[in-house]
Amino acid sequence: xxxxxxxxxxxxxxxxxxxxLKRLEYRGYDSAGIAVVDGDDVRRVRxxxxxxxxxxxxxxxxxxxxxxxxHTRWATHGGVTETNAHPHVSHGVALxxxxxxxxxxxxxxxxxxxxxxxxxxxDTEVIAHLIHSFLAQGADLLSAVQQAVRELxxxxxxxxxxxKEPGRMIAARMGCPLLVGLGDGENFVASDVSAxxxxxxxxIFLEEGDTADVTRASVAVYDGNGEAVQRDVHIxxxxxxxxxxxxxxxxxxxxxxxxxxxxxDTIEAVMDNGAFSASxxxxxxxxxxxxxxxxxxxxxxxxxxxxLTARYWIESIAKIPCSVEIASEYRYxxxxxxxxxxxxxxxxxxxxxxxxxxxxxxxxxxxxxxxSICNVPESAIxxxxxxxYYTRAGAEIGVASTKAFTTQLVALxxxxxxxxxxxxxxxxATEASYLDALRQLPGSVQHALNLEPQIxxxxxxxxxxxxxLFLGRGVHYPIALEGALKLKEISYIHAEAYPAGELKHxxxxxxxxxxxxxxxxxxxxxxxxxxSNIQEVRARGGEMFVFADADSQFGESEQVHxxxxxxxxxxxxxxxxxxxxxxxxxHAALAxxxxxxxxxxxxxxxTVE
Length: 609
Ligand code: M6R
Description:
Elements: E1 3-8, H1 14-24, E2 31-38, E3 41-48, H2 51-60, E4 67-73, E5 88-90, E6 93-98, H3 104-113, H4 124-136, H5 141-150, E7 156-162, E8 169-174, E9 179-182, E10 187-190, E11 202-205, E12 211-214, E13 219-222, E14 228-229, E15 234-235, H6 251-257, H7 259-273, H8 285-289, E16 294-299, H9 301-318, E17 322-326, H10 327-330, E18 341-347, H11 353-364, E19 370-374, H12 380-383, E20 387-390, H13 403-422, H14 428-449, H15 452-462, E21 467-472, H16 477-491, E22 494-499, E23 516-521, H17 527-538, E24 543-549, E25 560-565, H18 573-592
Parallel strand pairs: 16-17, 16-18, 18-19, 19-20, 21-22, 21-23, 23-24, 24-25
Antiparallel strand pairs: 1-4, 1-10, 2-3, 2-4, 5-6, 6-7, 7-8, 8-12, 9-10, 9-11, 11-15, 12-13, 13-14
Helix pairs in contact: 3-4, 4-5, 7-13, 7-14, 9-13, 9-16, 14-18, 15-18, 16-18
This protein binds 5-amino-5-deoxy-1-O-phosphono-D-mannitol (M6R).
């Protein structure tokens, strides 16, 4: 969603701002802008559409400055217009904002009564005027920002500059991520480390309520009470290569193909350890995990489907109950908490608002045993959790989640086996066989990727379709759900997934020759059941596209097309079967000519309700 970058230096910061905004493009946005302090003036340029258009306008107007802020906006309050785009300016104060101010209407009324005029419909413009109102009473910029944020309800990450104080930039955060990047004689602020990684890897993650006073030579951080605080300096391991396309056409394609490496990196700690061990989840994890009575998983989208898959593992291997709930539903219902349950949040970004709020709600109900499975170090959700397992997928740029999903599954399988071992229900031989399966997983994922040419041929038949059904059973049902989500979000083909046994209870009515039916049919205990379900489709003239394992007997016909993975990989089979459905969605979208990495209406990190 929205993205922030700011810089103060001895050199022209405009290229830093533009480059940073381009690196934030993947988050999803519909307008972009920058503001710079130029002499005793604040100049800004804003455009709807791509950063490149705004960049061209800035170049034409000769923007060049040593202090500036930039923003990519994903519209919430007010439409996609240039006047609603950030930065917003009030009497020489310019600011960019991520988040939502809930009491913006009351603030707007108050500020109108004070004589301020509004040019936009945004909640952000009130913050600019509010800060100016404190400056007008004699405050300096830091104090004006600190006083202004005390009046705000809601979530914000802010970067603020003023023509009156050209040597400083103020940052503030509550509920939205914001970090300060430390350079050599220059400093930066950003909502995401990828925006400034070309300039520095040394970062301070601001905490809830913090403000930071950033000059060229210094960074001072203050907590919510205005007390000076020391925050740790982290060295980011985000690599520039992970943010660049390289030889690929799309980030999604790159990320699909990175999965053998991503899975390999994610299991590295387990392999180095040679056993499933609580220490993989952080300090004191054994005490937290040993006596859990059940697991409550909370997540959204693809991460939710990873949770649904894990439920099958947790109940069958660790032998404790597991329930999985969409975070945006859980946070608003009267849930009955068992404090002995482990609450697991799953999030690629670590900043999905619904998941974060669900975690806060679970904690308010008395859940102290919390664990986050996350791909972004130091993001909000792991920081709010007692334990954490970081997947090592590397930066995921494509809006459609791929390598994050398979690595989340690896993490969840590791968690399952760790709990099972602590509970004494995982014997040594089974543990050894699971470790071996994990060791072989990167190779099995590569074998699945090698099916791509066959999947390309299928995708051409998919491209003209309006609808598709995905079927799976047992632990592969969530993979069918994930396949349908991938297809709909990037190709815009309407797709739904059902447990194959449920077909005859309604969705079978949809089946005719125009409806392709994708079936995940690995060689597991439910294969014969799936085969019967396939007959139900076949008898109604439906065309089937079956992903099977080499060792399962499937007769092909005009109506039944089969692609076979090299072999059945047992308990980790859902991870391998996720690959072909990702490839199918990718190539169907390619054939339809959609914007694969930035599908319409979607954002990578969903930081609003
Ligand atoms: O960052 P998160 O894992 O918390 O994101 C959750 C969903 O927004 C995300 O998985 C979304 O469904 C993806 N676009 C799916 O490809």
